[in-house]
Amino acid sequence: MEQLLSQEEINALLGSVSDGDEEQAGETIDEVVAKPAETRLFDFTKYTKGRKERLSALDFITDRFSKSLVSSLSLFLEREVEITVTPIQYIEYSEFIKTLPLPTNMNIVVTDNLKGFFMVIFDAKLIFCVLETVFGGSSITAPKIEGREFTKIEFNIIKKLVDLVSVEMEKAWEPVYEIRCKYSRSEINPSYLTMVSAEETVVVLEFSVEIESVVSWMKICVPYGILETIKGYLISTPSREDMEMRSKWFHSLQRSVTHVPLEVRAVLGKKRMSLQEFLGMKKDSIILTNTAVNDPIDVTIMNRRKIKGRMGAYRGNKAVRVEKIG
């Protein structure tokens, strides 16, 4: 069946619209023109900063991290630990710090490979539980949160805890991108950390940590701009097949590199002379070098000095005994 209107039907529709609505439409237009336009400012910069692409590989990293942290933290505390992962958040830093209570232990961890840093944030309840366990508490109870700074001894324990988290982070990131983490400093007030602008988007990984009957939390905050530099590695989740293929490729490359031929030279001595001296040389002429008979000599690999050794003989062949490498 055809769904087309005839020309007469089209003319009839147009006629009814123009006859019936022309006066009303005119009045509406006049009213709109008479009214002042209502406007409001729109911050395009803030809008674009807030809309960030989700990095699916972070879910993979977070899952690996939580599983390995359970084992290492249980071993560290010698108590049973349970960790639950909450969904990853992409929010502005100003909104994130509003969710942090005081006091809160915030630790800056520098990442050399990413050329940036991330923050490891512990609930004060978690810190006092760890301190109670390390200092010989027989059982863990909900601690009384005190608004005081941690002592030097307590900070040493916190640093060990941050180092433990850093090691597990390195392991979790390894299949995606190799990073190296190093503890920098700690703070208890978020306002003291000014390395991230209030409008910048951050990625927040939150973990619920249960030690016996005490439930607390830990958060890892990473500026999105740092992750954006390696976004190509993070937009897709590595599969098991990809990881196996990468491992095989790495070991194959490692074996191939060990068979690359290198030119090795033992430099007995050097002498700088003028062209006139060189042209004046004859048979049986003697060249005095900068190396005495008993001095160690340089061994170069691809024209780069790598080894120090002494000249000698081995099984009838001239040889160099290595004394220092590097």
Gap from first CA to last CA: 89 Å
Q: Which structural category do the helix and sheet elements fall into?
A: alpha+beta
Q: How many runs of DSSP E, i.e. beta strands?
A: 11
Largest sheet features: 7 strands, antiparallel
Q: What percent of the residues sit in helical stretches (DSSP H or I)?
A: 25-40%
CATH homologous superfamily title of the largest domain:
CheC-like
Pick out the low-confidence regions: 21-27, 45-50
Beta-strand percent range: 25-35%
CATH architecture descriptor of the largest domain: 3-Layer(aba) Sandwich
What is the level 1 CATH name of the largest domain? Answer: Alpha Beta
Q: Rg to the nearest angstrom?
A: 35 Å
Write down the overall mean pLDDT: 81
Order of helices and strands: HHHEEHEEHHEEEHHHEHEEE
- In total, the number of domains comes to 2
Shape: extended
Q: Which topology of the largest domain does CATH recognise?
A: Chemotaxis protein chec
Count every helix, treating DSSP H or I runs of 4 or more residues as helices.
Answer: 10
